[in-house]
Each structure stands twice: as structure tokens, then as C-alpha cells.
Specification:
- It is a single chain.
- It is built from three helices and no strands.
- The protein is mainly α.
Length: 136
């Protein structure tokens, strides 16, 4: 049977490497990336330092493997959820920037149209006042 220490060391290394890769390709945000880096480092350090696993002696060896598999599945799901949240947060920020730029462009166009409208109104006013003054 594979020693529990070795499983913790491998899981810690895998978490750190996958987290670093996900952060590098911008699929993981800074806060979640640091959180998973600490979880991976903690798992790695516990696997390296802790030698006495007598606390787990109450768990039968037949139940240890399914328990480890369930814990790994839960960690994988949490990792995927945090990755998805990071991607959606980044996309939300990008959309907010696009909306801001579109609002700014809209304001410029409105000011330009209002300026043209004021010029037309003023020319209409001068034409009507000019016609009235010629008639008198």
C-alpha cells in the first residue's frame, strides 16, 4: 500500500504546479491563486514533516482509499469552482471597461449633436429675425 505521506506530498506538488499554470494562463485570479498555493504548500509540508499517522489508525485501510478519493474529488471541484469564479470576475471587469468606454463615446456624440442642434437653432433664429427686420 502507498504510504499516506507520499500521497500528501504528491497532492501538494500537483496543487502547486496546477495552480501556477492556471495563474500563468490567466484562468486563476490572484486571491484564489494564493489560497490554492497555500493549500498546496501546507499539504506538501504536512506530508514531509508529519511521520506519525496514528490518528488515522482508527480508519480501516479499506475505508482509507475511498476517503482519499472523495477528498481529492472535493478538492478538484473546489479548484474548478474557484477557477470559474476567477474567469468570470475577469470577464466582468472587461465588460465594465467596455461599458465605460461606450458611455464616454456616447457622451461625446451627444455633446457633438447638441452643439450642431444649437448652431441650427441659432441660424433659424437669425433667419427669422432677419426677415422680420427687412419687412419693417
Amino acid at each position: 500500500m502507498i504510504p499516506f505521506r507520499l500521497i500528501l506530498i504528491v497532492v501538494g506538488i500537483v496543487i502547486i504546479v496546477v495552480d501556477f499554470i492556471m495563474y500563468a494562463i490567466k484562468k486563476m485570479g490572484e486571491s484564489y491563486g494564493l489560497l490554492w498555493m497555500f493549500i498546496g504548500a501546507f499539504t506538501l509540508v504536512v506530508g514531509i514533516i508529519k511521520r506519525d499517522w496514528s490518528a488515522f489508525s482508527i480508519i480501516d485501510n479499506k475505508l482509507l482509499i475511498p476517503a482519499i478519493i472523495i477528498i481529492l474529488i472535493i478538492l478538484l471541484l473546489l479548484f474548478l469552482m474557484s477557477s470559474t469564479i476567477s474567469v468570470l470576475t475577469r470577464q466582468n471587469q472587461e465588460l465594465a471597461m467596455h461599458v465605460s468606454l461606450l458611455n464616454q463615446e456616447n457622451e461625446v456624440l451627444i455633446k457633438k449633436l447638441m452643439g450642431e442642434q444649437n448652431i441650427r437653432d441659432m441660424s433659424v433664429l437669425t433667419d427669422t429675425t432677419g426677415e422680420n427686420s427687412n419687412e419693417a
